[in-house]
Write a structure and sequence with these properties.
- By secondary structure, this protein is an alpha/beta fold.
- The chain is 42% helix and 17% strand.
- The strands form three sheets. A seven-stranded mixed β-sheet has the order 4-10-9-8-7-5-6, sandwiched between helices. Strands 1-2-3-13 form a four-stranded mixed β-sheet.
- The longest helix is centred in the last third of the chain and has 20 residues, at 295-314.
- The structure holds pyridoxal-5'-phosphate.
- Pyridoxal-5'-phosphate is lined by residues 111-113, 116, 137, 139, 181, 185, 210, 212-213, 241, 243, 249, 251.
């Protein structure tokens, strides 16, 4: 049974986590009442760890669009677009995403993870070089690995580290891909995209930006950090997900390069998986429409984020470097983080527990994600619960 022996370590890890109370990897929501409320172990709980930035999961128009699609197009597509064809909704969403990002084209994938895998595996091949931010999401690492390209990491958000790597690549720099995120999901910090883009132009490279956490959050029109920093038209490939601000699931790649149109013939994660179901496409399209037509959601999100960040800081917690809807509270010791996370949950607040090695600097974090749908009262309750951890 030596093949299965590796699971002994995972079992030890799992029982260690569960020993302190609720297993953070096994939380069950017995009911979801709204974008910000659920029931855990019979307790009414404020959801503060959902990435539901615009709070659109219960938006009546999104729900109605999903129901209509279920009733008129059925529950699923039951196959891939390559083999079974596309639904009109897939193409409409692609056109709407292209319009939103002011690009000639966009491609829809079945998950955000798949969008990263599919885009990187299509763009890169063995012999190519990719420069990857060290704190990039697992899906970006996995996409690079799947492509067989040579991967070189540079220091997180560090412009001079990227430049050193580009120099070292010599002639290869002009056909390398730089891979970064807009806002990073653990600490809520933004990339210096304007500087990264300037470097990529200087070296004639190509840049891909994952705006999974930034769409709907940053930029005058909610297009992400690239829009906020004025470089949207210079980014070569924008990838993202429907599972955060858009409240559904699925992913996309938008690009100003015509090559994107050919990904559907070469990208295995696009070709060999079922396409998103009609209800998912319908709710995503409606959510995108809301994102575009209701800037007040973004304003409300930032109000909530600023208030929570300022209060936690006043209470002496060590936080990520900038105000954002992802607010990570650093807890030095892993055991303390686990105990605090359990205390919050017992007090009716659900946040995310982030433990090493999946964290920057191998620290532990209680990660809050703020929503436009949080009420002032709910934000006050979250602040009080954190203050209680100091007792
Ligand atoms: C930066 C980043 N990219 C991609 C993904 C994958 O998206 P999805 O969970 O929608 O597949 C995530 C998910 O958390 C993410 O944080």
């Amino acid at each position: 049974m030596s093949l299965l022996a590796k699971f002994n370590a995972a079992e030890q890890l799992r029982s260690g986590l569960a020993g302190a109370g609720q297993d953070p990897t096994g939380v069950v929501f017995d009911a979801i009442r709204s974008a910000t409320e659920g029931v855990v172990e019979g307790r009414e709980t404020i959801l503060a760890g959902t990435n539901n930035y615009l709070g659109l999961t219960f938006d009546p128009e999104c729900v109605a669009a999903g129901i209509e699609a279920l009733e008129t197009q059925g529950t699923g597509t039951t196959g891939s677009r390559m083999a079974n064809g596309s639904y009109a909704g897939h193409l409409a969403l692609e056109a709407e995403l292209a319009d939103f990002f002011e690009c000639p084209g966009a491609l829809v994938f079945s998950t955000g993870y798949g969008a990263n895998l599919g885009t990187l595996a299509a763009l890169l091949e063995p012999g190519d070089a990719v420069l990857l931010d060290a704190d990039a999401h697992a899906s970006l690492y996995d996409g690079c690995r799947m492509s067989g390209a040579d991967v070189f990491r540079f220091k997180h958000n560090d412009v001079s580290s990227l430049e050193r790597r580009l120099k070292r690549l010599g002639e290869r720099a002009s056909r390398c891909l730089i891979v970064v995120e807009g806002m990073y999901s653990v600490l809520g910090d933004s990339a210096p995209l304007d500087e990264f883009v300037a470097l990529k132009e200087q070296y004639d490279a190509v840049i891909l930006v994952d705006e999974a956490h930034s769409v709907g959050v940053f930029g005058e029109h909610g297009r992400g950090v690239a829009e906020q920093q004025g470089v949207l038209d210079k980014v070569d490939f924008i990838v993202g997900t429907f599972s955060k601000s858009l409240g559904a699931m699925g992913g996309f790649c938008a690009s100003r390069h015509r090559a994107l149109g050919l990904f559907r013939y070469v990208s295995r994660p696009f070709i060999f998986t079922a396409s998103p179901s009609p209800s998912i496409i319908a709710t995503t399209r409606m959510a995108l429409k809301q994102l575009r037509s209701r800037p007040e959601l973004r304003a409300r999100l930032w109000q909530n984020a600023s208030r929570l960040y300022a209060s936690l800081q006043e209470n002496g917690f060590e936080l990520g470097p900038q105000v954002s809807p992802v607010i990570a509270v650093k807890i030095e010791q892993k055991e303390r983080a686990l105990a605090d996370w359990n205390r919050l949950l017992r007090g009716g607040i659900y946040v995310n527990l982030m433990l090493p090695p999946a964290t920057p600097g191998s620290a532990s974090f209680l990660r809050c994600s703020v929503s436009a749908a949080h009420t002032e009262e709910q934000i006050s309750t979250i602040i009080e619960a954190f203050a209680g951890l100091r007792d």
